[in-house]
């Protein structure tokens, strides 16, 4: 009697009871994950890039207001503190002021680090422009581009 009971507990696995994945199942899973990654990773990079652009545009707007306040007090943009070179305010952009005269200026945000290739400008008239952008991005002479398609 013991031998019959032991025999029931020591059965060998049949092919229907085998556990694990076949090579085909693993390969299909790898292909699906690869396709998802090929779509998701570039989209994520673009999302991160778009999230860093306001770093430039908000600082340019702030510096523009400071320059206008300085002009109201001094009737010139020459030697205005907001017009000095600024490489410390932002991790992703350097700010410079070129063409500073008594009545005109051009503020520029130039990308650095992962934002290399982007250049945004604004002048005393409030004219905004995207003068440089990485390959695949659209430039604009009338606004600050925030998306690849040229959206402002």
* Annotation, overall tally of beta strands: 4
Helix content: 25-40%
* Overall body shape: rod-shaped
What is the averaged pLDDT score?
88
Query: How many helical stretches?
Result: 2
What is Rg?
Answer: 30 Å
Spans of at least 5 consecutive residues with low confidence: none
Structure classification = alpha+beta
The main sheet comes to:
4 strands, antiparallel
Element-by-element helix/strand order: HHEEEE
How many domains? The number is 1
Strands of the widest sheet, in order across it, are 1-2-3-4
**In whole angstroms, how far apart are the ends?**
85 Å
Work out the strand percent: 5-15%
What's a concise summary of this model?
The protein has two helices and four strands. The protein is an alpha+beta fold and 152 residues long.
Structural account:
With 152 residues, this protein is of the alpha+beta class. The protein has one domain (22-132). It has 2 helices and 4 strands, in the order ααββββ. It has a 4-stranded antiparallel sheet, with helices on one face. The N and C termini lie far apart (85 Å). The relative contact order is 0.11.
Secondary-structure map with pairings?
Blueprint: H1 2-9, H2 23-74, E1 93-98, E2 106-111, E3 119-123, E4 128-132
Antiparallel strand pairs: 1-2, 2-3, 3-4
